[in-house]
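Thread: Newbie trying to understand structure tokens

Hi all, I'm a second-year student working on a class project, and my supervisor (Dr. K.) asked me to get a predicted structure for one chain before our next meeting. I've only ever worked with sequences, so writing a 3D structure as a token string is new to me. If someone could post the tokens and maybe explain what I'm looking at, I'd be very grateful. Here's the chain:
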Amino acid sequence: GFCANLLLSRSPQHILAQTKNKTEILCDLNKEHAGVYWYRWSQERQIFEFLVFSNSFGKATYGPNVSKDKFKVHGMSSRTSYNLHISHLNTSDNGTYYCSVSQSSQLFLGSGTQLGVVDVLPLPQKTTQAPTSKKPMRCVIKKNAVSKKGACSPLVWVPLSASILILLLSLIPTAHRLHRLRRRLWLRIHRQ
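---
Reply by user tm_fold:
Sure, no problem. This is what the structure looks like when written as tokens:
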């Protein structure tokens, strides 16, 4: 069976590439593994296809009808990062690519990287600049809404205020001792 594992991450989530070129998908693992499996889900053909397994020594085992020239896996020395290189791209390479590791007789998959292969890459949209004004402008600073995990989050201020309260309470006995010591010294000085 397959299990989703959030500790397997791919980079990036979407790739748009041109035919006849090459691309690369990075897989970061949460810890060292003996190797990594790569699969592709083809929406068009509705098949989940095994592409290649690469062990930590760089030895690769390919799936049926998978070209060794097209797919290559490069592992890092840390054994926690593996790169899938895909060359000679064509539209049949469209799909979602998953890296996977085997653990306790289960295959763990992450979210996958969606690859789209097109004949012509779209041109970046042109951005238009507003005409520059010669008169001075007043700057207005907008306050962004703070997210729930921001500086005003209860996860931040509750422990912080509790720590301050504990610190203040711990100072009370010290202040009391200093007051008693001061009073003793004052009495000694006046008795002499």
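A couple of things are worth pointing out once you decode it. Residues 159-191 form one domain. Residues 154-191 form the longest helix (38 residues). Feel free to ask follow-ups in this thread.
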